[in-house]
Design goal:
Rossmann fold, alpha/beta, 6-stranded parallel sheet, elongated
Length: about 325
């Protein structure tokens, strides 16, 4: 068999297919140059998480023995400790690699959104801020950029996604150019995405389906307008359970009752707003869990951070 790496799921620690378990163990003995990984989700324990007792002791030897030339992977530290304490496995032979999800597919994102996410490495940022609106002077995008820069200076890797750019029917080119120059001046080009430009560059049409996708993956929605007649993005953010940072406008208070979401751009400093954003998300269990899922339990990250190093360690570098 022209295979060097053989990964087996649950066969070595459960009674799912004992003839296969027996055959694989004999195969390992016959071909010691081939290495096995026992991907272990479940050992064959009883309801008390203890070893079961079998009338046939040969079964115990099969599934409760640590087999030579087999590298064991446990899906949690809890499971690793169970294998060590209950079965006497060597702790150095067990690597913990957690379960995960393909977050992009799990969230059912649009293909166009996925293309932008992958191109700009969006999920690698530890704080994703979404501004669903246009670059107009009263929207105070310049203040948002200075807040973003301050968050970056505090050791975070933030990303600000602005959904729309120029307005073809208004003369906002001067302010748009001011924003582009400020991004360059602050050296935050890698921390800002003008979504409209990305979509045009990919020769696709922006749709509300794409906008909804960015609500799904964002940690925070920001709106620091000097005035508004309503606040539709606040409702949309609420529908997706995304926290807000918004200017202290009476019209916004018709929609949002949580005072923790409000800041005052006329009196609050950029440093204070940046600190409030970081603190609010660090104390938001839902945001913290989403960030952890995005960074630690996304399958692509698990492969890069856990699986590939294990294979490189045992069998040589993957090219």
């Amino acid at each position: 068999m022209g295979i060097d790496i053989i990964i087996v799921h649950n066969i070595f620690t459960m009674t799912l297919n004992l003839p296969l378990t027996t055959a694989l163990i004999q195969y390992i003995k016959n071909y010691p140059n081939k290495k096995f990984i026992s991907w272990t989700h479940d050992p064959s324990f009883n309801n008390d998480k203890k070893k079961r007792s079998f009338n046939n002791k040969e079964i115990e030897k099969l599934i409760y023995k640590q087999h030579k030339n087999v590298k064991y992977v446990g899906i949690s530290n809890y499971l690793k400790e169970s294998l060590i304490n209950e079965l006497g496995f060597n702790k150095n032979s067990i690597t913990v690699i957690p379960n995960g999800i393909d977050i992009i597919n799990f969230l059912d994102l649009e293909p166009e959104t996925i293309e932008i996410i992958n191109k700009r490495h969006i999920l690698e940022h530890d704080l994703i801020i979404f501004y669903p609106g246009k670059i107009i002077k009263y929207k105070n995008i310049d203040i948002c950029l200075n807040i973003l820069n301050e968050i970056k200076n505090k050791g975070k890797n933030p990303l600000l996604i602005i959904s729309a750019g120029r307005l073809p029917h208004t003369n906002n080119h001067e302010y748009f150019d001011e924003i582009i120059n400020l991004i360059a001046q602050l050296n935050i080009q890698k921390n800002v995405i003008l979504l409209e430009d990305e979509i045009i560059a990919n020769k696709i049409n922006i749709s509300f389906e794409i906008i909804k996708d960015f609500y799904k993956i964002s940690d925070l929605v920001i709106n620091l307008s000097s005035f508004e007649n309503f606040g539709l993005p606040l409702i949309e953010a609420g529908a997706y359970k995304v926290p807000l940072i918004i200017n202290d406008l009476s019209v916004f208070k018709e929609i949002v009752e949580n005072d923790n979401y409000f800041i005052d751009i006329n009196s609050d400093s950029v440093e204070r707003i940046a600190s409030k954003i970081i603190s609010s998300l660090e104390h938001n269990p839902q945001s913290q869990l989403f960030n952890k899922v995005r960074s630690h339990y996304n399958l692509s990250n698990i492969f890069i951070d856990k699986i590939q190093p294990l294979i490189n360690q045992l069998y040589g570098t993957i090219k």
